[in-house]
Design brief:
The complex is a heterodimer of chains A (about 475) and B (about 425). Chain A is mostly helical and about 475 residues long. Chain A has 24 helices and four strands. In chain A, helix 10 (about 140-150) packs antiparallel against helix 14 and helix 22 crosses helix 23. Chain B has helices at about 5-10, 20-30, 65-70, 95-100, 120-130, 140-150, 195-210, 215-240, 255-265, 295-315, 380-395, 400, and strands at about 45-50, 60, 80-85, 90, 105-115, 155, 175-180, 275-280, 320-330, 350-355, 360, 380. Chain B is built from twelve helices and twelve strands. In chain B, the strands form two sheets. In chain B, strands 1, 5, 6, 7, 8, 9, 10, 11 and 12 form a nine-stranded mixed sheet that branches. A three-stranded antiparallel sheet of chain B has the order 2-4-3, with no helix packed on it. Chain B has about 425 residues and is of the alpha/beta class. Classes of the chains: A mainly alpha (about 475), B alpha/beta (about 425). At the A-B interface, helix 12, helix 20, helix 23 and helix 24 of A face helix 5, strand 7, helix 7 and helix 8 of B.
């Protein structure tokens, strides 16, 4: 573990810890969904400062992207009853094509934080409204985000605030706003929840917007965190934000998201960032920038210290292959891997880390990688073909092909034994009896696709 | 039916050689013969009701006037209740389970189960039940600990979005999560059998030599272990016949499908003795309904799925080997809220179903007079139920797992 004094200072390359393709790959995986060959090369050439600026700032979306995405999210394309798959596919398409991957990545962080599921909300319009709220504040003010979330229609349905009345308050939102959205368990009492629940009474949805109905709202005095007042829901959000634990809670969660699944950072590592976050009035963009620029981020403590989420696995693979994939079937495949966008398993979101991998989801990953790299599976179209990508680069010999793929997907992070086995497969695959009608190209392409699939099943590739 | 011997004869599990997890190899041979009387071959199936099942509307105190006062719109009318005793009865949606109780003497209800100072956070309370502990940091599960003592094959039968439960962590080998036998296959696109074998060989052998990354070694080890275990299990299950004809029809529900898969695995004779399944949706803060409605639908699913599963197993001679145990992270508030639902509470019933379960109602129904902040106070600690299951059913010393001072409840016939 790094010295807490220098951990958050900006990384500068050194002889022991140089800027290289592995670091470019690391940055692109965490701040987005992985790099292409060109991005790896450009990042290595430009150096750390320029690359970090590029990743943190992002580029404006193209007009075509914005128009298409907006059209796909219009009332007509996405009516309230639109199926779950269409919602997930819509976001996956954005992740694949965006020019500002960090913003979509952070939107995913907040989606996991305010984990709201269309399984209960049953209204694609509300889900899109929440997505827009989250995405527009992804790198903005968490204080605004938390406050506005209290009247977000999807959230009002998700945690039953829309049916909570003065006569009989419902505690669902009051509990989760403290336990999961701002403070964490142990930093409030059951009495705080019961009192706060009164503040969240009377909120309703009118014309697709959350509004306060004064007649159903309990306007009386409440006592929350030892403070007394005629609090509304907005006031309770403010009380949570002013609670000492708030900034720490978010910093810890972001640490897990951006830096490491495995270590539990000590207080002296978290506190300086929590203090910065509080002082900046919860400026998430600044916090993210500090983390991504830091010595800690570019240290072994962070390197491949996360398990790829299914979305990272799928989007990263398709991006690296410079292919296109139908996002509807992709969304469907991701369900088997354990991650359906707009439908997290519970209000706690996805647990992440080791919980992403079990026997079922692991086979699901292997089999999705197979479907994406082969041309036999018609689900995704044949537009994500490793042999086409390899043909654009110097991959004439088996060794060059394997090294190209290991660099693209892993920046070389595979043991020599894996490389030997991949080469061994390519050799064996030369002697296979192929159908008589296969051309030499058919055989070469089959071998390339098969070995690309094998690279994607390596244990190292499951790490982010 | 595939017998264990057939399985061993045809399985290519042995082909995994050195990479086969020791536990799988060992238990395949050690699997007790189910036909032999007296063999310790009991099966435990844990059914988790996720979200906090409303115990008060599940086992209904239909003679208690307070019950009807606390729940003006969602109470179950006395004449609809499926009576178990003179004072309590099951929700009318649980007819099938009530039949197992009255006609088959194969169901047991433990009332008012909970733990001291109950947490009303779904996640914290679920962790407490999974870890069988109220310690601040909980990292290992009670079933994982049991598997450490008694390493029998187990399965988490999962739904799409489900991750492996904390209860199973700490096992010597990660318990595989599977949704269907069909999906549980390592696929390749290959021209010939030799091509396929060559590809699979790279995949399985590369898993065993992980270590090229300069990053987190512990995480990489975890991935590699999970991969090896998965590939071995996948191979193992490939030999199980896909054509399973249940002795009784199962209802159409996700839970029933999971239990049908459990039945298939039990009947395949591969020595599997532990299953974990869950059904979500019990967090009924709003519009939960009474005799019909959202909560009733959930109870119907639970009751019918478990009943069909038991009858199917009993029809195949596994009835006396089987024990199904249900639990939920907490019960719900005694009084209903303004959304015609109930908020998080405490103290709720558990069910045990099986041929060797002692039919009856165990423990007192929690008092509706002595509520604590509107919540039922538990009379039986859930670790007393775990103790019975561990000591008397799985044959594992419960003290090492749940700790001292939890007297096993009397729920098994012998």
């Amino acid at each position: 573990m790094l010295d807490p004094k220098t951990a958050w200072q900006s990384y500068a390359p050194s002889a022991e810890n140089p800027w290289d393709r592995a670091k470019v790959g690391h940055l692109y995986r965490r701040a987005g969904f992985g790099a292409t060959v060109a991005e790896l090369a450009l990042g290595a050439k430009d150096g750390h400062a320029k690359t970090l600026d590029r990743v943190l700032t992002g580029a404006p979306e193209s007009e075509d992207f914005t128009r298409t995405s907006d059209f796909m999210a219009s009332d007509r394309s996405m009516p309230p009853g639109a199926p779950q798959g269409r919602l997930s596919a819509w976001w996956l398409d954005r992740m694949l094509k965006t020019k500002h991957p960090l913003r979509e990545k952070m939107a995913l962080f907040w989606h996991n934080h305010f984990a709201t599921s269309n399984a209960k909300v049953q209204n694609a319009r509300f889900m899109l409204t929440q997505y827009r709220l989250i995405q527009s504040h992804a790198l903005g003010s968490f204080a605004r985000l938390l406050t506005l979330m209290g009247t977000d229609p999807a959230m009002l349905v998700w945690l039953d605030t829309n049916t909570s009345t003065k006569a009989a308050p419902n505690e669902n939102y009051a509990r989760e706003v403290m336990e999961l959205f701002s403070l964490g368990v142990g930093n409030y009492t059951e009495a705080d929840i019961r009192e706060a629940a009164r503040a969240f009474t009377g909120y309703e949805i009118k014309d697709g917007k959350g509004v306060l109905n004064r007649r159903q709202h309990d306007a009386g005095e409440k006592r929350v965190f030892g403070k007394t007042g005629k609090f509304t829901g907005e006031d309770v959000a403010g009380l949570c934000l002013n609670h000492g634990e708030g900034p720490r809670f978010i910093v810890r969660k972001l640490y897990k998201f951006l830096i490491s699944d495995t270590d539990t950072p000590a207080a002296n590592l978290i506190d300086p960032l929590a203090e910065q976050y509080r002082k900046s009035e919860f400026d998430t963009g600044k916090l993210v920038a500090t983390m991504l620029r830091s010595n800690l981020f570019f240290s072994p403590a962070s390197y491949r210290a996360k398990i790829k989420s299914p979305v990272e696995f799928a989007i990263g693979t398709v991006r690296a292959l410079e292919g296109a994939a139908g996002t509807l079937p992709l969304a469907e495949a991701l369900e088997g891997l354990g991650q359906v966008l707009f439908a997290p398993p519970s209000v706690k979101g996805w647990d992440g880390g080791e919980s992403w991998l079990n026997a079922q989801t692991l086979l699901g990953r292997n089999n999705l990688a197979l479907a994406l790299t082969s041309t036999e599976d018609s689900r995704f179209g044949a537009r994500c073909d490793p042999s086409q990508l390899a043909a654009k680069h110097d991959t004439k010999t088996d060794a060059k092909l394997v090294d190209f793929l290991l660099d693209l997907f892993l920046q070389g992070d595979a043991p020599e034994g894996a490389r030997t086995r991949l080469l061994g497969y390519l050799k064996t695959a030369k002697d296979v009896k192929y159908p008589a009608y296969w051309s030499d190209d058919d055989v070469a392409n089959h071998r390339t696709r098969a070995v690309a699939h094998l690279v994607l099943t390596l244990p190292e590739y499951q790490l982010n | 039916m595939t017998t264990r011997r057939d399985f061993l004869a045809t399985s290519s599990l042995l082909g995994f050689g050195a990479t086969v997890p020791a536990f799988l190899g060992r238990t395949a041979f050690a699997a007790p013969n189910a036909d032999k009387a007296g063999a310790k071959d009991t099966v435990l199936v844990v059914v988790q009701l996720t979200g906090g099942n409303d115990g008060l509307n599940t086992v209904v105190p239909f003679t208690n006037a307070d019950y009807y006062k606390l729940r003006p719109t969602i109470a179950i009318a006395k004449d609809l209740v499926k009576k178990l005793t003179d004072d309590v009865g099951l929700h009318p949606a649980m007819t099938a389970l009530a039949k197992l109780y009255t006609d088959d003497s194969a169901a047991c209800v433990v009332q008012g189960v909970g733990y001291p100072n109950p947490s009303q956070s779904h996640f914290r309370s679920m962790d407490v039940w999974h870890a069988a502990s109220t310690a601040e940091t909980l990292t290992a599960g009670w079933l994982g600990a049991a598997l450490k003592k008694q390493p029998v094959p187990g399965f988490h039968l999962a739904g799409g979005n489900e991750t492996s439960p904390l209860a199973l962590t700490g096992a010597p080998v990660r318990v595989p999560s599977i949704t269907s036998l069909d999906d549980f296959k390592l696929k390749t696109v290959s021209v010939t059998g030799a091509d396929a074998a060559a590809q699979k060989n790279v995949i399985t052998s590369a898993a065993s030599i992980a270590g090229g990354s300069s990053g987190s070694q512990s995480l990489l080890d975890f991935v590699s272990r999970t991969q090896m275990n998965t590939y071995a299990s996948s191979e193992k299950l490939a030999s199980i016949g896909k054509n399973y004809t249940p002795k009784v029809p199962y209802p159409t529900s996700a839970l029933a499908n999971k239990l049908k898969l459990a039945a298939q695995l039990i009947d395949a004779g591969i020595g599997a003795r532990l299953f974990y399944v869950s059904i979500d949706g019990f967090d009924t803060h709003a519009g939960q309904g009474g005799a019909t409605g959202a909560h009733a639908n959930l109870l119907t699913q639970v009751s019918e799925a478990i009943s069909s599963f038991y009858r199917d197993m009993a029809g195949r001679g596994h009835g006396n080997r089987l024990c199904v145990m249900t639990f939920s992270e907490f019960g719900r508030r005694a009084y209903e809220n303004g959304s015609k639902g109930t908020d998080h509470g405490a103290g709720a019933p558990m069910f045990l179903v099986g041929g060797n379960v002692k039919a009856g109602v165990v423990g007192e129904h929690p008092s509706l007079k002595g509520l604590k902040e509107g919540n039922l106070v538990h009379g039986t600690d859930f670790r007393q139920v775990y103790a019975a299951v561990l000591d008397k059913w799985l044959g594992v010393d419960s003290k090492a797992i749940v700790g001292d001072g939890f007297k096993a409840v009397d729920v098994f016939a012998k």
